[in-house]
Amino acid sequence: MVDSQWSLYSLLIAVAGIGSFYLWYERRGSSPREMALIATLAALAGLSRLPFAAVPGLQPTTFLVLICGYVFGAAPGFLVGSMAAFTSNLFLGQGPWTPWQMIAWGLAGVCGGLIGLRKEKMNGKGKEMVSRWLLVSLAFLWGFIFGAILNFWHWLTFIYPLTLHSYLATLLISIWFDAVHAVGNALFVLFVGGELIKLLTRFKRRLTVSGLPVERLNGEVVHHEKNG
User: Fold this and answer.
1) What is the distance between the alpha carbons of residues 158 and 179, in angstroms, rounded to a whole number?
2) CA 129 to CA 137: how far, in whole Å?
3) How far apart are CA 83 and CA 80, in angstroms?
4) 138-170 pLDDT, tens per residue?
5) Which residues contact residue 180 at a Cβ distance below 8 angstroms, ignoring those fewer than 6 apart?
6) CB neighbours of 228 closer than 8 A, spacing ≥ 6?
7) What class is the 2-223 domain?
8) How far apart are CA 46 and CA 227, in angstroms?
9) Is the peptide bond before 161 cis (omega within 30 degrees of 0)?
10) CB-hemisphere CA count at 13 Å for 112?
C-alpha cells in the first residue's frame, strides 16, 4: 500500500510540475508566432517516433528536442520536449507514463538550451566544433538519462520492495534498450544535427526580426512586425 501511494504521489508531483511550468510560460507573454513554431516543432518531434516505433529504444525525438533547445533556449526546449511526448502518445497510447516522458524530454530540451547558452559565451574559431561534440556527447548520455527517469516511474509503480537494489536491477534490465537509444541519439546529431541547427537558426532569426524594432508611442510600447 505504501509503495502504491509513492507512485501516486510522484505522478501528482510530476503533473503539478509540468502544469506550473506551462502556467509560468503563458504568463511570460510569448508571441503567437513563437507559440506556433513551438507547437510545430513539438508535433514534428513527437511524430518522428512513429516510423521507429518497431525498433525498441530508437527514438529520434530526443535528438530533435535537444537541437530545439540548443537553438531556441531552455524554456522553449522544455515545451517542445513535453508537448512532443504528449503528441506522440496520442498515437502510441497515453497512460501514467506520459507525464514522466514529458518531464524526461522536457529536461532534454533544457539541457540542449544550456549547451546553446554555453556556445554563445564562447569565443574562438573552435566554438562550433566544441559545441557539436558537446551535443553529440549530451545526446548519447540522454539515452541513459531518459531510461533512468522512465525506469524510476516503472520502479515506483510496479516493483516491490522499493530499494536501491531493486532500482539498480530495473536499470540493468533495460540497459540494452537505453544503449540503442544513446547510440541512435549520437548518430542522429552527428550526421543530421548540423543541417538541422542551421535550418532552425534561420527560423529563429526570422522570428526575432519579425517582432522588432520596438518603439514607444505616447508612453505605450508598440511592436512593428515585418512581413516575410
Assistant:
1) 23
2) 12
3) 5
4) 999 999 999 999 999 888 888 878 888 988 998
5) 55, 56, 57, 58, 143
6) 206
7) mainly alpha
8) 30
9) yes
10) 34
